[in-house]
């Protein structure tokens, strides 16, 4: 092989052909819309560059040096700006810290991203192999800004365009998964957390965990920090839980597939209306439909979402 056509990254030669393949995989990765495709194109990308998920300072510079398309540069510029924040101490704030995140939902992935930027070695386990939650989330302004800084719009062009301030949970999960992977987070799907295994002082083994399948390689990993982000049925033992409930009410949530027809496009969104603020609207609605409501929300995304 012609040495003039090689890029050496930390002693590992990357040929110009490998770099070209990596950029092709990157484009497919950015456009992928399912967990299976996202992870598949990601594996192709990092295999082309002889990379494996690792701490931020060992993974990201190699990735950044070889992704040269205009789209990649625009996204990585966002990551560079984020990683330069003083709180991360150039990826050394959590150096030599091993973090396990249980659950690949929005909270789990966003936590994994933050820990990765701090310099920890982060592993995420998710028991599912797909994202199927089509409920639509209303996003607070500070959340929109946070996601913009992480390059959300580079992955999903419609992200909070104009007055839109919502996104489907599935789409949000895909965005955060892509960000986490490009920063070096190690993600395993179809892996269920079972229980913690306490340290063994005699064998000098730290905290580990038991998973299904039992023979998965992550079962041999040791962790300093374990974060339960698997919802209200959190599986971490030894923690008391308290659920806060407001006034009980009956709520109906409906999701219908958005077929993108002309008639559907004409329907206006309702960002959130309460009876007390627009009594005429609700009285007219009751007269037309015989449905008596106190509040209503209607968003359009991959589905028509109403609450």
Automatic annotation (TrEMBL):
Against Gene3D superfamilies, the record matches this protein to: FAD/NAD(P)-binding domain
A GO molecular function term, named singly, is: oxidoreductase activity
What keywords are assigned to this protein?
Answer: Cytoplasm
The segment(s) forming the [F-actin]-monooxygenase MICAL1-3-like Rossman domain are 248-305
- Record's GO cellular component terms: cytoplasm
Q: Which residue ranges does the record assign to the FAD/NAD(P)-binding domain?
A: 92-132
Statement: the UniProt record of this protein carries the keyword Cytoplasm:
yes
UniProt subcellular location: Cytoplasm
Kindly give the InterPro entries that the UniProt entry links to this protein. F-actin_Monoox_Mical, FAD/NAD-bd_sf, FAD/NAD-binding_dom, Rossman_Mical
Regions that span the bilayer: none
Name of the molecule in the record: FAD-binding domain-containing protein
